[in-house]
Amino acid sequence: MKKTNFSTRAYVMKNGQVMIRVRWNSKKNEVGFSVGYTIDPLKWDSDKQLVKSNTTHKIGGKIVYAREINNAIRSFLVCIEEVFAKYDLHSKTPTTTDLKELVNEKLGRIKQETVNEDKVKTLKDIFSEFLLLRPQEGNWGNKIHEKYDQMWTQLSSCDPNITLETLDQAKVQELVVWYIKNDYCNRTIQKQIRILKSFLRWVSRHGYTINSGVLEFKLRLKVIPRTVTFLKYKELMHFFHFEFPKEKEYLSKARDMFCFMAFTSLRYSDLAALRPVNIVDGCLDFCTEKTDDKLHIALNEHAQRIIDKYSWYKGDTIFPVPSNQKLNDYLKEAAKLAGLDREISQVYFKGNTRHEDTYKFWEQISCHDARRTFVCCSLALGIPASVVMSCTGHSDYATMKPYIEVADETQKIQIEKWNTHQYKSGIIESMEKMNSAQLKQLFEYVKSIT
């Protein structure tokens, strides 16, 4: 078997387009592949030939994360390696045309016009291709896969004969009307249209033609942001110290798991995967399951108490964490028993009709409320947003914004400064006029009431 020597190099062109160049046969042959992303050259790591970690890029009106672009680059490199390996088995060398066509074929980038007329792909075929290739490019989890499956089911329910040619602005508006008729709220419709556009942007990047105006379609529906649910500081500490009946020890465990996430900002996936090796010098040192971010989080006393409480557990992980669904079910029971019955109001629209649902906190509590609790309580305690972001892994304020709610408690803590300042300043002025005996008498009085 003859081994073909070749070299690959990823780089950013002057226009910001990411390219991969392949050279072989003593550099006589060369092929360039456009990765399909335009980035800021300052965010490019020329040594690693990848986008700098934890950077974000605005492409086509949406935020694209470094990991997505880097995964696309790696996908190209893997396909190039596979093509050369296949030819090496037969002691052959691919031509420039062979390499370009085979790599594009592996990546699903063959343009529609190059396919034989009797083999033209339907929109369903393209979607199936998308589900096969996109998870590899973006390191998807199962839940993201399910979101796109759901979007396709809804699109094909609206029009069972949908094609790429008939998917125009009018068809998207028809889809919106279908959602409203089927009792979807506007917030959900907005999310589903966003998922559809994400799929169509991928389709466009892979050589297919999208009808003009589809990607620029703007939803003309009233959408009110969802009320962010979280525990206020006093509620969190009440929940943390609440004594559950001995026969309901599973509720105590569920509470502890929630509070640990609320004290550290962890997601459920990171809590379940946390191992003893991730605790270093009083800090959590780990790589997140969802985003592959490397985080270093200092443990506060409350979080350390929970770790110490479960030191008896000898499993591979730090905690005996139940499944996500079971934990959410237990949390609702625990929160109800602990009296977390503050009422939450959610206002939303279905078409032009306003709706308002009111429920008690314990009815809707879930694992993810713990992460929001960490953000909101940290801000309420005066911890700078930059420090909070370093714990949550958010790369910029815009990405953390959905988690931030200016809580009543936060406002009260800050506004209370107006009230307390007048008294503090008055006390200080009076103290400056006191003699030693009076100051001693004041000190003894303050000591007796504190």
Automatic annotation (TrEMBL):
Keywords assigned by UniProt, alphabetized: DNA recombination, DNA-binding
CDD domains: INTN1_C_like
Family statement drawn from the similarity comment of this UniProt entry: Belongs to the 'phage' integrase family.
Domain Tyr recombinase, first and last residues per copy: 223-416
InterPro entries linked to this entry: DNA_brk_join_enz, Integrase-like_cat_sf, Integrase_catalytic, Integrase_recombinase_N, Tyrosine_recombinase_XerCD
Domain of life: Bacteria
Keyword Cell cycle: no
UniProt entry tagged with the keyword DNA repair: no
Entries under SUPFAM superfamilies matching the protein: DNA breaking-rejoining enzymes
Name the UniProt record assigns to this protein: Site-specific recombinase, phage integrase family
PROSITE patterns: TYR_RECOMBINASE
Pfam families the UniProt entry points to: Phage_integrase (PF00589)
